[in-house]
Design brief:
The chain is α/β, with parallel strands linked by helices. Helix content is about 30%, strand content about 20%. The strands form six sheets. Strands 24-23-22-21-25-26-27 form a seven-stranded mixed beta sheet. Strands 7-6-3-4-5-20 form a six-stranded mixed beta sheet, sandwiched between helices. It has a five-stranded parallel beta sheet with strand order 17-16-15-18-19. The longest helix is centred in the N-terminal third of the chain and has 17 residues. The protein is globular and about 70 Å long. The N and C termini lie far apart (about 50 Å). Iron/sulfur cluster (SF4) binds next to α9.
Amino acid sequence: MGQTLTEKILDDHLVEGDLETGEEIGIEIDQVLTQDTTGTMVWLQFEAMGLDEVQTEIAAQYCDHQTYQFDFKNTDDHRFLRSAAGKYGAYFSRPGNGICHNVHRENFAAPGKTLLGSDSHTPTPGGLGQLAIGAGGIDVTVAMGGAPYYIEMPEVVNVRLEGELPEWATAKDVILELLRRLSVKGGVGKILEYTGPGVESLTAPERMTITNMGTELGATSSIFPTDEQTKDYLERLDRGDEYVELQPDDDAEYDDEIVVDLSELEPLIAQPSMPDNVVPVREVAGQDVDQVIVGSCTNGGYEDILPAAKMLEGRQVNPTTEMIVAPGSKQASEMLAREGWVAEMMAAGVNFSEATCGACIGIGHVPSSDSVSLRTFNRNFEGRSGIEDDNVFLCSPEVAAAAAIKGEIVDPRDLADELGDLEAPGIELPDEYDGSKADLITPDEAPDDELVKGPNIGDVPLKDQLDADIEGEALLKMEDNITTDHIIPATQDILMYRSNIEKLSEFTLSRVDDTFAERAKEADGGVLVAGENYGQGSSREHAAMCPMYLGIEAVLAQSFARIHRANLFNFGIVPLTIDEETYEDIDQGDEIEIVDDVYEAVTSGQEEFTIRVNGDEEYTATLDASERERDILAAGGKLSWTKEQAEESGSGAAPADD
Ligand code: MIC
Ligand code: SF4
């Protein structure tokens, strides 16, 4: 039987297991990436494991999320990260050089390689035929130390693209269409592999908009085959020698197939406050728009900003609307500046930002009260923009620029009819990506060889071995699709404590209930209850680390998002699946007791657990976990487990702190 492209790359990197859907496999990781807000824990854990050098072909540390450095704590984090990259042998991308996914795709992403990153949008270079996966920080730490990455073999879904995009429809509309059809949990446990005649019409950057936002479907990864478009893009990056032709076999068998006819797509928009709340732009046209932002790792490339710049050439941003362009990389800014486009946009009334995540997580450009913001980003979870009652829409740069010109949501086709001289900008790649590399410090040039830690940089929290008894109050009952932004928000006031878990934990679940952290501390333990897709969104392991720190021992949910589920194991919290009836029957404040000896049950492979509610009703909850995951849980988390392993084998990671 022929292989899918996903299977071919996995096969090439397989160190354990068989490529059977649902089976745990171990794969070798060629490249890792980490960024400023997850990276501090990555390196603190690297240090705590006693590792002394990066083992992957490439490890890159980016500083991208909080580059405005409002507080010395942010700057100290960046200083620490530079020192860690220097000491352990990683590339270091300075604050302002750009968003990790953009800078990685420009410099390192390569077809056929595996990439693991402590950011949920790591799958971006899937558009270049790289198999890239987002993970919690400690998984990245361990992979960086040379160990395999373990994952349940996902289903491989064939997304067959037919036809070609019509004028004004873009790559963003392809992924918005998939979100409209499949929802934010439609991709869980799946890798989306794009095939079909429509693929060749999409340039590599367009493909990367699609693979980037596959994360919003909950997918493990998304990948395109490689072809002339891939080669062409790599050549323009002066990395043509890294091109490898990669295609699935003609008789490859997929677990499922979805067909998207590109020629039928039209400009789409995700309404507040979920990326799958998608409708045609025309359905919501006419709403006043207060703010427009073009940028982010989804649509912040040179190729994304140029269409908006062309639409604005010789025009002005509507006086009632503010428009911000936040490029994904400094290379994009530099090139657009050299070509005169930055000046053109400024003259049109655009405010040009440094290359940063910034506004995507509520750091800068927070919308005003009761206002509408149109963004080319990938997430519009409630409150993420920095204000609780936000109205954030997600769209393509073309739809964003049209709104900036008109001052209201408008389908760009209708605006073109109205203005008479507005042409569809299409997509254009530069002849060469020739930005300076001054902000990317290679391991050889590293100015540091010792760690530099500011006073806000704390220790990695450790948990004891798993208890035999788990009982406590259901401290919080939550609905479906709770995001990690709900669990640990990423806004500036909170983000600066990413390397100080004691302080950060005070904000745990504050977006759902601001009394939670206090109550959890007082209760000294307890459990969380949630609906479907608990923990969707970001990879931040802090969303497991902080509940652990507050004494949460188990989460009972109808289903879990992939990365967060792994993070719960990694921090010794038992993720139990419950059915809808059990979910309905448990109320916040109920006393929950796991009747079984939990340690014994976890280590012996038991799948069904008995839950007693208020000392009376009994229900069944399920632990669906591999042997390795059970061992990690029993040890109290991945750091303790890795140390145990090292002690047992008498090699590798020796504990640095005992
Ligand atoms: C996000 O888009 O939510 C983030 C901020 O990039 C996160 C990482 C983090 O929380 O540091 C992600 O996507 O993993
Ligand atoms: Fe940054 Fe936003 Fe992309 Fe996350 S989604 S990496 S915050 S730009």
